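Technical note accompanying the year-one report. For the benefit of new consortium partners, we illustrate the data format agreed upon in the data management plan: each record pairs a sequence with a structure-token string. No post-processing was applied to the example shown here.
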Amino acid sequence: MQLQERDFEKELQFQASRSGGAGGQNVNKVATKVELKFDVQNSELLSDEEKELVLSKLASRINNEGYLQVVCQTERSQLRNKELCVERFYELLRQALTKQKKRKATKPSRSSVKRRLEGKKKQAEKKANRSYRGNF
């Protein structure tokens, strides 16, 4: 089942507060900063395996209470910041839940090995020609 098919909206908690930075009077009056919290352990939409993946891969974004936090304060509108938080949340989950491909070990081709060794020989000759070998 895809992430977009699941409705995480019920499990998301939002909190708005005043944003810092530029913005003039708007900053002092309007609570535009949005903080999204998602309780990973108590989620009904994630399987146990998915919870483990999220907890391990997103450990730096999870606080002591076990909440995954996403904060947005770039926009001047609270609604736009909330939308950005939700987008980032889905992107973080998608990245955490995608399995990485196994790396296949490869050998360098004969021609590439030959080219590398020839380059090393040229460099060695160039350096050898720089030294002065006079008889005193």
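Partners are asked to follow this layout when depositing records. The longest strand covers residues 33-39.
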